[in-house]
Structures are given as structure tokens and as C-alpha cells.
Amino acid sequence: MSVVSEGADLRGPLGxxxxxxxxxxxxxxxxxxxxxxxxxxxxxxTALVGIVIAPGHVHxxxxxxxxxxxxxxxxxxGALNMWYDADIDARxxxxxxxxxxAGRMExxxxxxxxxxxxxxxxxxxxxxxxxxxxxxxxxxxxxxxVVYTMWLKRSTPQNIVIGGAAGAFPPMVGWASVTxxxxxEPIILFLIIFFxxxxxxxxxxxxxxxxxxxxxxxxxxxxxxxxETRRQILLYTLLLxxxxxxxxxxxxxxxxxxxxxxxxxxxxxxxxxxxxxEREGFVAARQLFAFSILYLFLLFAVLLAEQGLNxxxxxxx
Length: 317
What we know:
The chain is an all-alpha fold. The chain is built from 14 helices and 2 strands; from the N terminus they run E-E-H-H-H-H-H-H-H-H-H-H-H-H-H-H.
């Protein structure tokens, strides 16, 4: 909340002048917007997959607690991102309506909200689930807020490449919540999201380049131009497509996943090639951006479905 003190003589003792507290104009909807619910939904979904496919058994209450803490931690990181990036958001058409640049919320409110949720989610996860998972969630929040938001985003066109690691941690945190450790499987899931992030965001950045330029964010299309960006999108997609099939080859995903990953990867490659050869307009870039969301969802949804089917079959046999 803000304090109205204009015209008051603050040299006297506190209370010698009437000081009025002005209630915040932020609504519940604004606080929900701070959590970046669309990003949070992806985080929760990939973390859920990490929990479900991890070996061993976790009590449903512990599993729910872990998922809730991961969701709150992701929302907290989003709130701290909006607090720090309010100046950038105000210059971009896509983000100008967010609570802080729109004037519906004071920056301090977002900062306090984000810090409270961050500390709370890490402590609860560490105490009620396990310390390793809590520490990994703390590092994820730190990486997104400090390494990506405060440093990389404003300093290098590789911001989304390195910073994309923050969005790739949730399945690892989910896995660690069950096992208290990490093995090759969650690392592969991490790498899939990590290599998915550049083509996904650079496809968006291609047709939002003016927005990023106006805000002073050195996204790849702004710094290196659309031609280099299209080339980089294709290169990362060439790495992503075979990597996404790895869970099948490594034996922790079934043949259905293998087929879906192969077919969807081929479509991703085809769209990336279209982006590469496109010379005017951004039709292919928009198509790639839209399909990339479906692509990642399909991969993790099939992993989840296969695990559920295996559990049912195990009970019947």
C-alpha cells in the first residue's frame, strides 16, 4: 500500500500529523496475473510428469504438496519477474496491460508478494517433502529471477537460451520430490525443454521484434536480424527432434511415445524449415510458435498416459 504524506510536516513526532493509508487498487485478478498462470500451468504439468514417472512410491498428500509448492514457486518467480521488468513491460504492446505498468499495483506490492511466496514454497517443500527438492526449487527461482531476469535478459541475445534452463527445471524438481535425487531420466526431460525453448520463443520474437526493440531487450531478431534467427531456430530444432525420442530409446517411455515424438518432431522440423526459407511475412513463424506449444504438451502427456496405463496393467496382472 502507499502512504499519502504530501504537505505533512515529517520533522515532528510520528502522529503529529494525520497520515492516511491509501488502499491498493490491485484486485485478486491482478495478483493472479502476477503468477503468470499460463506459464504456471506448463510448469505444473511438466513437474507432474516428473513426479509420476519417478521410480518408487510417494504418498498422494506428499505428491500434492510437492506439486503445489512447485506451482507456487513458479508463480512467485513470475511475480518477481514482473516487478523487476515493469519498465520493459510498459514499453511493449504485449505486456503493457500487466498490473504494474498499467498502474493497478505498486511495484513494492509485487515484490513483497513474490518474496513471500518464494520463501514459503521453498520452506514447505524442503520440510514436508525433502531438502534436496526444496533446494532445487530455490535454485530454480534464483536462476529465473536473478540469472535470467536481472542479468541475461537485458545483456545478451542468448538470454532465452541460457535463461531457458529455468523453465526446464520443474520435471527435475518433481522427480527429486519423489526420489530425493536425480538420475539420467529427469536430465533428459530437462534437456528436451531446454532445447525446445529457443525455437519456441524465437518464433514469437520474429514477429514481435519491434516490441522488443522498443523495450531495449536484445532478443536475437533485434541484434542479429531475422535471417540469423531463422537459421538458429532450425539448428535448435534439429537438435530437439532426435533428443525428444531419447526417452523411448533409453527405455523409460513406451512405443506410443516413440511414435508420437517421431511424428511430432518431423512436423516441428518441417515448420522450422518453412521458417528458414520464408522471406516475407511471419506466417511460418506463427505456425511454429503455435505448434511448439502443442508439441511439448504431447510429449509430456503421452509420458503421463503411458505411466498411468502401465500402473493399471500392473494391478490387473
